[in-house]
Design a protein that fits this description.
The structure holds 2 protein chains of 2 kinds.
Chain A (H helix, E strand, L loop, with lengths): L3 E4 L2 E4 L5 E7 L5 E8 L3 E10 L2 E4 L7 E2 L9 E3 L8 E8 L9 E2 L3 E5 L1
Parallel strand pairs in A: 2-11
Antiparallel strand pairs in A: 1-3, 3-8, 4-5, 4-9, 5-6, 7-8, 9-10, 9-11
Chain B lengths: L2 E3 L4 E5 L4 E3 L2 E3 L4 E8 L5 E7 L5 E3 L5 E5 L4 E6 L8 E9 L7 E2 L3 E6 L1
Parallel strand pairs in B: 2-12
Antiparallel strand pairs in B: 1-4, 3-9, 5-6, 5-10, 7-8, 8-9, 10-11, 10-12
Classes of the chains: A mainly beta, B mainly beta.
Chain lengths: 114, 114
């Protein structure tokens, strides 16, 4: 089954404790992206990747890191989480440019930082 | 800079009634336009998109949207809604000269009542 998976689905952590949210797709997609969803703000892009070893900042990259060492994986790293990073996070992938190809979204990761 | 405005945060409607979800965008260049739907506790799914050609686009489940360039709008309509249409709907835009990213609106929650 074609899908985007994220782990964990729910995470409660404390300020400053490094964490990684994994994202994996099995569709051989070139483009991958991370978004955060906050009430009243919709989805805002954190980082995106056009292909292996090619990543770039989205609109809200502060406090986040990503890497794309393999085509299928695109982990999101929070080196020192803070309470303002409490949010619902989505990973997405598309065959190529998201303007021309449908983005497939993962089920989401709900992160709470206390 | 491009932006997307969804003025209605929530639209309550009775089953079998028509509905319109409004979306306006701002951009100085030509754009691609999208509607994504998010059912409860799920990721987003593409509902329909406008890339070029006919300004009226349709989805498989009865929704349609019309691109109006002069009014910079891409409103979503359905002549008769079902309970199962209850979800959050996001309008998104991508500029043709920066098609590697989508900008999402803040979302409209459609609540269909029996």
């Amino acid at each position: 089954e074609a899908q985007v998976t994220q782990n964990p689905r729910y995470l409660i952590t404390v300020t400053g404790k490094k964490l990684t949210v994994t994202c994996s797709q099995n569709m051989n997609h070139e483009y991958m992206s991370w978004y955060r969803q906050d009430p009243g703000l919709g989805l805002r892009q954190i980082y995106y990747s056009m292909n292996v070893e090619v990543t770039d900042k989205g609109d809200v990259p502060e406090g986040y890191k990503v890497s794309r060492k393999e085509k299928r994986n695109f982990p999101l790293i929070l080196e020192s989480p803070s309470p303002n990073q409490t949010s619902l996070y989505f990973c997405a992938s598309s065959l190529s440019l998201p303007s021309s190809y449908e983005q497939y979204f993962g089920p989401g990761t709900r992160l709470t930082v206390t | 800079a491009q932006s997307v405005t969804q003025l209605d945060s929530q639209v309550p409607v009775f089953e079998e009634a028509p509905v319109e979800l409004r979306c306006n965008y701002s951009s100085s260049v030509s754009v691609y336009l999208f509607w994504y739907v998010q059912y409860p506790n799920q990721g987003l799914q593409l509902l329909l998109k406008y890339l070029s050609g006919s300004t009226l686009v349709e989805s498989i489940n009865g929704f349609e949207a019309e691109f109006n360039k002069s009014q910079t709008s891409f409103h979503l309509r359905k002549p008769s809604v079902h309970i199962s249409d209850t979800a959050e709907y996001f309008c998104a835009v991508s500029e043709m000269d920066s098609s590697y990213k989508l900008i999402f609106g803040s979302g409209t929650r459609l609540l269909v009542r029996p």
